[in-house]
Amino acid sequence: MSELSRTGYHTDKMWVTMGPQHPFSHGLWTLRVKVDGEYILDAEPEVGYLHRGWEKECENRTYAKIIPMADRLCYSASMTWSHLYCKVAEEALDVEVPERAQYLRVVADEICRIQSHLMWLAALGTDLGNLTIFLWCLREREFFLDLNVRLCGQRLTTNYPRIGGVRNDMPYYFERDCMRVVDRFENSLWDIINLTDESSVFVSRLKGISYLTKKQVANLGITGPAMRGCGVDYDVRRDDPYAAYDKLDFEVPVLKDGDAYARYRVRVEEMFQSCEIIRQAFNALQKIPKTAPYRLKVSKKIPAGTHMAHIEDPRGDALMYLVSDGSGSPYRLKVRSPVFVNVSASKAMLDGCRVADIPAVMAMIDMCLGETDR
Amino acid sequence: MAMKYLDKYPKKFRGTGGIRPILRVLRTMIKTTLHRPVTILYPYEKEWIPDNYRGRPGLRFDRCIGCGICMRACPTTCITMVDAEDDDGKIVKRPQVNVGRCMMCGYCAEYCPVDAMTTTPDYELAEFTRKDMIYDPRRLAFEGTTEMMEVHLEEHLQSNLDKGIEDKPTAFFDTDRPVLDDDLCIGCSKCAKVCPTSAIEMVVVGQNAKGRDIKRPKLDSTKCVCCENCVIDCPKDALKIEEVL
């Protein structure tokens, strides 16, 4: 219940439709909010404008052809989605990925996580009216996209993981470039923090709005940084380790505050931790000989059965469920998109907020419509 | 490991004077004045891109054997095999790419057994009509193709790794070969006709009741590139690919 209805100053309740073309929506979706004056009583997200029939299209493609399609699920988390698809196929084939490929996947995933979080921070900056944050974040993001080009030839649609390994070994100069970018990025992220945390305007827009309790998070199925900002200590990388994450030492930021500011802080800390993971992964890669295998030959057909895999996407717990019938293409491939679940919690997140808080609150789930609508 | 950002922020004591913010702004101002601009004037200046950049596919016409592996590996089916004239005036099959459909995944270059298909750093592909987007085999050629533009398939056999043997990486076109089911074969010699490397030869193995020759395909596995043309064209499904894992 909003504060206003408690005080007795009622205005007529009305539904306001925000979207599908609205600056805050970061894509095509509609948020219908029921407002009482300035306060929000109810919210209803409407997604589906970008539905491409992704899951159905997979059913008439061979297993290898789905990897570049999985890249296109999300424009900024392409590496983790294709990694997830390869992981579920490997689990179905019962293949152990070579160690070198595991570390290369970790490096690629963390580069993806940093650039995805930078895209989120840039969008948050424009939502709150600070264009400098947007420009500085995208400037830093460009360096990570350049790393993607060096590693696999494309900036966004990476197509790097393969079933049984990775596409190619890293080029000889990649480690040097990566270390330079990471060192530079850590310094310049402090500059960006000077714009955000040092600015009382920015902090006051986020602090104290959109409180969620642990119980609400569990009932609504929220995952990812939005969940960790509410005090739930869970990260797939640490609690159900995949690739080489169990051999790496990193912290999972968890905050008990539960407001939008806590979700922001969790994401910023995650970027620093990702830098640390990249450094450790390169230290481990140096110990593996350069001639070590990085890709295994796998069968074109997957034996019949059902298989499931999940990994930590920049936005939350991404899951794929594969039903194979023994042929060369999947019988069914189900995608559990973290954003699709998170956005369905918008009523709980927006309850009691003002209209002006909507961009700040909805930016915290880092909307990406490609994976939401599929 | 410790938290880097969460240990410092939010700051409990926010300071009393205005000198620190002013110093910070001055530092940033000096930094941005001294630095070069981070943007470029795009059509006039272009960013340096590495040779392994995945732009449109390129073709080395004389290397291609017309096996059609690229056509079958393409996720968007933008590649079709068309008749083209080679340098001697002979009609051969070569890939034609509809670049308007291409998703630049690089699979054609990756699976090419003779490294004829490559990726190229060519990314400015806008045309006035959709027909112009279709690149015929001669137009696909890219001047200055380097070794970096080739994508090599370097896979290790799982059975070898389990035994502890670390040999040279292979690929499916080195190991996988079609095998014949003798009962189904009718000796039509269609497989020998479609084979791009002429690895299949029809040999007489005996005579039937009417006194006619019984022919069976014989595979030269050194020539075979596992293109599956014979498997697809076999009218009785007598050929199957045997995968080595």
Give a short summary of the structure:
The complex is a heterodimer of chains A (374) and B (245). With 374 residues, chain A is an alpha+beta fold. Chain A has 16 helices and eight strands.
Separation, N- and C-terminal Cα atoms of chain A: 34 Å
Mean pLDDT of chain B: 86
Number of helices of chain B: 8
Query: What percentage of the residues of chain A does DSSP assign to strands (E)?
Result: 5-15%
CATH superfamily of chain A: Cytochrome-c3 Hydrogenase, chain B
Strand order of the largest sheet of chain A: 1-2-3
Task: Give me the Rg of chain A, rounded.
Answer: 21 Å
**Distance linking N and C termini of chain B:** 41 Å
Topology of this protein?
The complex is a heterodimer of chains A (374) and B (245).
Chain A: H1 3-7, E1 13-18, E2 30-36, E3 39-46, H2 54-58, H3 66-71, H4 78-93, H5 99-127, H6 131-152, E4 161-162, E5 165-166, H7 174-196, H8 200-206, H9 214-220, H10 225-228, H11 236-239, H12 260-287, E6 305-313, E7 316-324, E8 332-336, H13 338-343, H14 346-350, H15 358-363, H16 369-373
Antiparallel strand pairs in A: 1-2, 2-3, 4-5, 6-7, 7-8
Chain B: H1 19-34, E1 57-59, H2 69-73, E2 79-85, E3 91-98, H3 107-111, E4 117-119, E5 134-135, H4 137-140, H5 158-163, H6 172-175, E6 177-180, H7 190-194, E7 200-207, E8 213-219, H8 229-233, E9 239-242
Description:
- The complex is a heterodimer of chains A (374) and B (245).
- In chain A, a hairpin with a 2-residue loop joins strand 6 (305-313) and strand 7 (316-324).
- In chain A, the strands form three sheets. Chain A has a three-stranded antiparallel β-sheet. Chain A has a three-stranded antiparallel β-sheet with strand order 6-7-8. A two-stranded antiparallel sheet of chain A has the order 4-5.
- By secondary structure, chain A is an alpha+beta fold.
- The mean pLDDT of chain A is 89.
- Chain A contains 16 helices and eight strands.
- With 245 residues, chain B is of the alpha+beta class.
- Chain B has two domains: 57-149, Alpha-Beta Plaits (2-Layer Sandwich), CATH 3.30.70; 159-242, Alpha-Beta Plaits, CATH 3.30.70.20.
- Chain B has eight helices and nine strands.
- A three-stranded antiparallel β-sheet of chain B has the order 2-3-5. A two-stranded antiparallel sheet of chain B has the order 1-4.
- Chains A and B meet through helix 3, helix 6, helix 7 and helix 12 of A and helix 1 of B.
